[in-house]
Design brief:
By secondary structure, this protein is α/β, with parallel strands linked by helices. It is 40% helix and 16% strand. The strands form three sheets. Strands 3-2-1-4-5-6-9-12 form an eight-stranded parallel β-sheet, sandwiched between helices. A two-stranded parallel ribbon has the order 7-11. The radius of gyration is 20 Å and the shape is globular. The termini are far apart.
Amino acid sequence: MTILLVGGTGTTGAPLARRISTRSEHTVLLTSRKGVKPEALSGPDHSSVHVVKFEWYDRSSWTHPFDYVAEEKLSAIDRIYLVGPFAWDVRIMNDFIDLAREKGVNRFLLLSASQAEAGTPSLGQVHGHLVKLGAEHDVQWIVVRPTWFIENLGMYQVESIRNQSAIFSVWEDGKAAFVSAEDIAELIFQRLTEWKTWNYDMIIHGPELFTNDQIADLLTSTLGRKIVHKRITKEEYIQQWSQMGLEELARGLVEGELMVAKGSEEAIFRQDSQHPASRPTSILVILLVTEGVTLFSDPPASVMTILLVCDISATGVPLAPLSQPINA
Protein backbone atom coordinates (compact mmCIF):
# COMPACT_ATOMS: atom_id res chain seq x y z
CA MET A 1 0.00 0.00 0.00
CA THR A 2 0.99 3.65 -0.37
CA ILE A 3 1.84 5.81 2.63
CA LEU A 4 1.24 9.53 2.14
CA LEU A 5 3.62 11.82 4.00
CA VAL A 6 2.13 15.31 4.18
CA GLY A 7 5.14 17.45 4.91
CA GLY A 8 7.31 14.61 3.70
CA THR A 9 10.33 16.74 2.81
CA GLY A 10 10.60 18.39 6.23
CA THR A 11 12.57 17.78 9.42
CA THR A 12 10.96 14.43 10.22
CA GLY A 13 9.43 13.63 6.84
CA ALA A 14 12.68 13.17 4.92
CA PRO A 15 14.29 10.72 7.39
CA LEU A 16 10.95 8.92 7.66
CA ALA A 17 10.71 8.56 3.89
CA ARG A 18 14.26 7.21 3.80
CA ARG A 19 13.38 4.54 6.32
CA ILE A 20 10.15 3.49 4.63
CA SER A 21 11.75 3.22 1.20
CA THR A 22 14.73 1.15 2.36
CA ARG A 23 13.22 -0.91 5.16
CA SER A 24 9.66 -1.73 4.06
CA GLU A 25 7.62 -2.80 1.05
CA HIS A 26 5.42 0.30 1.11
CA THR A 27 5.31 2.90 -1.63
CA VAL A 28 5.99 6.41 -0.32
CA LEU A 29 4.26 9.52 -1.63
CA LEU A 30 5.71 12.80 -0.37
CA THR A 31 4.09 16.19 -0.59
CA SER A 32 5.89 19.48 -1.04
CA ARG A 33 4.97 22.93 -2.22
CA LYS A 34 7.24 22.56 -5.29
CA GLY A 35 6.51 18.91 -5.98
CA VAL A 36 10.21 18.11 -6.33
CA LYS A 37 11.81 15.04 -4.81
CA PRO A 38 14.71 15.86 -2.44
CA GLU A 39 18.10 15.00 -3.90
CA ALA A 40 18.82 12.68 -0.96
CA LEU A 41 15.82 10.56 -1.97
CA SER A 42 16.45 10.58 -5.73
CA GLY A 43 18.82 7.63 -6.01
CA PRO A 44 18.02 4.07 -7.13
CA ASP A 45 17.66 2.96 -3.51
CA HIS A 46 14.60 5.19 -3.27
CA SER A 47 12.72 4.23 -6.42
CA SER A 48 9.58 3.65 -4.34
CA VAL A 49 9.50 7.33 -3.32
CA HIS A 50 7.22 9.66 -5.28
CA VAL A 51 6.42 13.34 -4.78
CA VAL A 52 3.43 15.52 -5.55
CA LYS A 53 2.61 19.22 -5.13
CA PHE A 54 0.60 20.06 -2.03
CA GLU A 55 -0.04 23.29 -0.13
CA TRP A 56 -2.08 23.46 3.06
CA TYR A 57 -3.59 26.82 2.13
CA ASP A 58 -4.43 25.81 -1.43
CA ARG A 59 -7.37 23.47 -1.04
CA SER A 60 -7.34 22.67 -4.74
CA SER A 61 -4.03 20.85 -4.17
CA TRP A 62 -5.49 18.51 -1.56
CA THR A 63 -6.71 16.03 -4.18
CA HIS A 64 -3.32 15.88 -5.95
CA PRO A 65 -2.02 12.88 -3.95
CA PHE A 66 -5.13 10.83 -4.70
CA ASP A 67 -5.14 11.84 -8.37
CA TYR A 68 -1.43 10.95 -8.62
CA VAL A 69 -1.77 7.40 -7.31
CA ALA A 70 -4.63 6.79 -9.76
CA GLU A 71 -2.73 8.25 -12.74
CA GLU A 72 0.48 6.38 -11.92
CA LYS A 73 -1.40 3.17 -11.08
CA LEU A 74 0.11 2.99 -7.61
CA SER A 75 -1.50 1.13 -4.76
CA ALA A 76 -4.14 3.11 -2.91
CA ILE A 77 -3.24 5.44 -0.06
CA ASP A 78 -4.23 3.64 3.11
CA ARG A 79 -2.50 5.75 5.79
CA ILE A 80 -1.29 9.31 6.14
CA TYR A 81 1.45 10.99 8.18
CA LEU A 82 0.38 14.54 8.99
CA VAL A 83 2.74 17.46 9.61
CA GLY A 84 0.88 20.74 9.93
CA PRO A 85 1.54 24.12 8.35
CA PHE A 86 3.89 26.61 10.01
CA ALA A 87 1.09 28.40 11.86
CA TRP A 88 -0.65 28.47 15.22
CA ASP A 89 -4.19 27.90 14.01
CA VAL A 90 -4.00 24.58 12.16
CA ARG A 91 -7.66 23.57 12.21
CA ILE A 92 -7.53 23.50 8.41
CA MET A 93 -5.91 20.07 8.86
CA ASN A 94 -9.25 18.70 10.08
CA ASP A 95 -10.85 19.50 6.74
CA PHE A 96 -8.12 17.60 4.90
CA ILE A 97 -8.58 14.62 7.23
CA ASP A 98 -12.28 14.63 6.36
CA LEU A 99 -11.45 14.77 2.64
CA ALA A 100 -9.02 11.87 3.01
CA ARG A 101 -11.71 9.85 4.72
CA GLU A 102 -13.98 10.46 1.73
CA LYS A 103 -11.15 9.06 -0.42
CA GLY A 104 -11.10 5.87 1.64
CA VAL A 105 -8.30 6.57 4.13
CA ASN A 106 -8.97 5.70 7.76
CA ARG A 107 -5.46 5.59 9.30
CA PHE A 108 -3.75 8.81 10.39
CA LEU A 109 -0.57 9.49 12.33
CA LEU A 110 -0.26 13.09 13.52
CA LEU A 111 2.96 14.80 14.53
CA SER A 112 1.98 16.99 17.46
CA ALA A 113 3.88 18.34 20.48
CA SER A 114 4.52 17.27 24.06
CA GLN A 115 2.47 20.11 25.54
CA ALA A 116 -0.47 19.69 23.14
CA GLU A 117 -3.14 17.61 24.85
CA ALA A 118 -6.20 16.59 22.83
CA GLY A 119 -8.57 19.52 22.52
CA THR A 120 -6.07 22.22 23.48
CA PRO A 121 -5.24 25.03 21.03
CA SER A 122 -3.33 24.49 17.79
CA LEU A 123 -2.31 20.86 17.18
CA GLY A 124 -4.41 19.76 20.13
CA GLN A 125 -7.50 20.63 18.10
CA VAL A 126 -6.41 18.25 15.35
CA HIS A 127 -5.68 15.60 17.96
CA GLY A 128 -9.16 16.15 19.39
CA HIS A 129 -10.72 15.80 15.94
CA LEU A 130 -9.02 12.44 15.47
CA VAL A 131 -10.19 11.28 18.89
CA LYS A 132 -13.77 12.17 17.97
CA LEU A 133 -13.53 10.39 14.61
CA GLY A 134 -12.09 7.33 16.30
CA ALA A 135 -14.95 7.22 18.77
CA GLU A 136 -17.76 7.89 16.29
CA HIS A 137 -16.45 6.23 13.14
CA ASP A 138 -13.93 3.61 12.01
CA VAL A 139 -10.96 5.98 12.01
CA GLN A 140 -7.69 4.68 13.45
CA TRP A 141 -5.24 7.29 14.74
CA ILE A 142 -1.87 7.68 16.46
CA VAL A 143 -0.49 10.97 17.76
CA VAL A 144 3.25 11.31 18.40
CA ARG A 145 4.12 14.22 20.68
CA PRO A 146 7.85 15.05 20.70
CA THR A 147 9.48 17.36 23.16
CA TRP A 148 11.67 20.14 21.79
CA PHE A 149 13.54 19.26 18.60
CA ILE A 150 17.31 19.55 18.84
CA GLU A 151 17.23 20.73 15.23
CA ASN A 152 15.17 23.78 16.18
CA LEU A 153 18.13 25.26 17.98
CA GLY A 154 20.06 25.16 14.73
CA MET A 155 17.16 26.55 12.71
CA TYR A 156 16.09 29.40 14.97
CA GLN A 157 19.15 30.31 17.04
CA VAL A 158 22.02 29.81 14.63
CA GLU A 159 22.10 33.43 13.44
CA SER A 160 22.27 34.83 16.96
CA ILE A 161 24.92 32.27 17.94
CA ARG A 162 27.05 33.16 14.94
CA ASN A 163 26.56 36.93 14.95
CA GLN A 164 25.82 37.80 18.59
CA SER A 165 27.39 34.88 20.49
CA ALA A 166 24.08 34.41 22.24
CA ILE A 167 20.94 32.32 22.41
CA PHE A 168 17.70 34.03 23.40
CA SER A 169 14.77 32.50 25.27
CA VAL A 170 12.05 33.01 27.87
CA TRP A 171 12.92 29.67 29.49
CA GLU A 172 14.77 31.15 32.47
CA ASP A 173 16.09 28.04 34.31
CA GLY A 174 13.63 25.68 32.63
CA LYS A 175 14.86 22.36 31.30
CA ALA A 176 13.93 20.27 28.26
CA ALA A 177 14.95 16.81 27.08
CA PHE A 178 15.73 17.72 23.48
CA VAL A 179 15.06 14.96 20.98
CA SER A 180 16.50 14.35 17.53
CA ALA A 181 14.35 14.25 14.39
CA GLU A 182 16.08 10.97 13.53
CA ASP A 183 14.75 9.40 16.73
CA ILE A 184 11.29 10.77 16.07
CA ALA A 185 11.39 9.42 12.52
CA GLU A 186 12.47 5.99 13.78
CA LEU A 187 9.57 5.81 16.23
CA ILE A 188 7.07 6.98 13.62
CA PHE A 189 8.47 4.53 11.07
CA GLN A 190 7.83 1.65 13.45
CA ARG A 191 4.31 2.71 14.36
CA LEU A 192 3.29 3.79 10.86
CA THR A 193 4.47 0.66 9.06
CA GLU A 194 3.52 -1.95 11.65
CA TRP A 195 0.22 -0.37 12.74
CA LYS A 196 -0.35 -3.03 15.39
CA THR A 197 -2.33 -0.83 17.78
CA TRP A 198 -4.04 2.51 17.39
CA ASN A 199 -6.12 5.28 18.98
CA TYR A 200 -3.44 6.44 21.41
CA ASP A 201 -0.91 9.24 21.79
CA MET A 202 2.66 9.06 23.03
CA ILE A 203 5.42 11.45 24.01
CA ILE A 204 9.00 10.99 22.86
CA HIS A 205 11.85 12.85 24.55
CA GLY A 206 15.63 12.82 24.63
CA PRO A 207 17.70 11.05 27.31
CA GLU A 208 18.97 14.19 29.08
CA LEU A 209 17.62 17.46 30.40
CA PHE A 210 19.27 20.72 29.35
CA THR A 211 18.80 24.31 30.44
CA ASN A 212 19.65 26.97 27.92
CA ASP A 213 22.48 28.06 30.21
CA GLN A 214 23.93 24.55 29.85
CA ILE A 215 23.50 24.69 26.08
CA ALA A 216 25.40 27.97 26.04
CA ASP A 217 28.19 26.37 28.07
CA LEU A 218 28.37 23.46 25.61
CA LEU A 219 28.66 25.87 22.73
CA THR A 220 31.29 27.90 24.54
CA SER A 221 33.51 24.90 25.17
CA THR A 222 33.26 23.73 21.57
CA LEU A 223 33.40 27.00 19.66
CA GLY A 224 36.21 28.37 21.77
CA ARG A 225 34.42 31.66 22.40
CA LYS A 226 31.93 32.74 25.01
CA ILE A 227 28.29 32.01 24.17
CA VAL A 228 25.68 33.31 26.59
CA HIS A 229 22.02 32.61 27.22
CA LYS A 230 20.15 35.91 27.19
CA ARG A 231 16.87 35.79 29.07
CA ILE A 232 14.20 37.84 27.37
CA THR A 233 10.64 38.81 28.24
CA LYS A 234 7.47 37.58 26.61
CA GLU A 235 7.11 40.92 24.85
CA GLU A 236 10.67 40.78 23.50
CA TYR A 237 10.07 37.23 22.23
CA ILE A 238 6.94 38.28 20.35
CA GLN A 239 8.76 41.29 18.92
CA GLN A 240 11.58 39.08 17.58
CA TRP A 241 9.14 36.81 15.75
CA SER A 242 7.00 39.75 14.60
CA GLN A 243 10.00 41.11 12.71
CA MET A 244 9.74 37.95 10.59
CA GLY A 245 6.00 38.46 10.06
CA LEU A 246 5.06 35.69 12.50
CA GLU A 247 3.36 37.56 15.33
CA GLU A 248 0.30 35.28 15.46
CA LEU A 249 2.46 32.18 15.66
CA ALA A 250 4.70 33.80 18.26
CA ARG A 251 1.78 34.62 20.55
CA GLY A 252 0.91 30.94 20.61
CA LEU A 253 4.45 29.57 20.83
CA VAL A 254 5.54 31.86 23.63
CA GLU A 255 2.97 30.38 26.02
CA GLY A 256 4.53 26.95 25.53
CA GLU A 257 8.01 28.34 26.08
CA LEU A 258 6.90 30.06 29.26
CA MET A 259 5.59 26.69 30.45
CA VAL A 260 9.13 25.33 30.06
CA ALA A 261 10.29 27.99 32.51
CA LYS A 262 7.70 26.64 34.98
CA GLY A 263 9.00 23.07 34.65
CA SER A 264 6.51 21.55 32.20
CA GLU A 265 9.08 19.71 30.08
CA GLU A 266 11.04 18.51 33.08
CA ALA A 267 7.84 17.02 34.49
CA ILE A 268 7.18 15.22 31.20
CA PHE A 269 10.73 13.84 31.21
CA ARG A 270 10.26 12.39 34.69
CA GLN A 271 7.06 10.51 33.82
CA ASP A 272 7.81 6.80 33.63
CA SER A 273 5.29 6.03 30.92
CA GLN A 274 6.85 8.12 28.16
CA HIS A 275 9.08 6.95 25.32
CA PRO A 276 12.75 7.93 25.81
CA ALA A 277 14.99 8.26 22.77
CA SER A 278 18.41 6.64 22.92
CA ARG A 279 20.40 8.89 20.57
CA PRO A 280 23.00 11.07 22.34
CA THR A 281 21.58 14.56 22.52
CA SER A 282 24.55 16.81 21.89
CA ILE A 283 23.06 20.06 20.71
CA LEU A 284 26.30 20.75 18.87
CA VAL A 285 25.90 17.74 16.62
CA ILE A 286 22.55 18.89 15.33
CA LEU A 287 23.79 22.42 14.79
CA LEU A 288 26.37 20.91 12.49
CA VAL A 289 24.00 18.50 10.78
CA THR A 290 21.21 20.99 10.11
CA GLU A 291 23.32 23.99 9.22
CA GLY A 292 26.12 22.31 7.23
CA VAL A 293 28.87 23.45 9.58
CA THR A 294 27.90 27.11 9.13
CA LEU A 295 29.02 27.87 12.68
CA PHE A 296 32.56 26.79 11.92
CA SER A 297 34.90 27.90 9.17
CA ASP A 298 37.35 25.27 10.40
CA PRO A 299 35.62 22.87 12.82
CA PRO A 300 37.70 22.25 15.95
CA ALA A 301 38.85 18.70 16.66
CA SER A 302 36.47 18.55 19.63
CA VAL A 303 33.52 19.02 17.26
CA MET A 304 34.60 16.16 15.04
CA THR A 305 35.05 14.00 18.14
CA ILE A 306 31.46 14.71 19.13
CA LEU A 307 30.28 13.79 15.64
CA LEU A 308 32.10 10.48 15.78
CA VAL A 309 30.93 9.59 19.27
CA CYS A 310 27.35 10.34 18.27
CA ASP A 311 27.71 8.27 15.09
CA ILE A 312 26.60 11.09 12.82
CA SER A 313 28.49 12.78 10.02
CA ALA A 314 28.32 16.49 9.28
CA THR A 315 25.96 15.71 6.39
CA GLY A 316 23.50 13.92 8.64
CA VAL A 317 24.38 10.50 7.19
CA PRO A 318 25.06 7.83 9.83
CA LEU A 319 28.70 6.82 9.94
CA ALA A 320 29.96 3.26 9.74
CA PRO A 321 30.26 1.57 13.16
CA LEU A 322 33.42 2.56 15.01
CA SER A 323 36.05 -0.13 15.36
CA GLN A 324 37.19 1.39 18.64
CA PRO A 325 35.90 4.14 20.94
CA ILE A 326 36.98 7.72 20.41
CA ASN A 327 38.60 9.41 23.36
CA ALA A 328 37.09 12.81 24.08
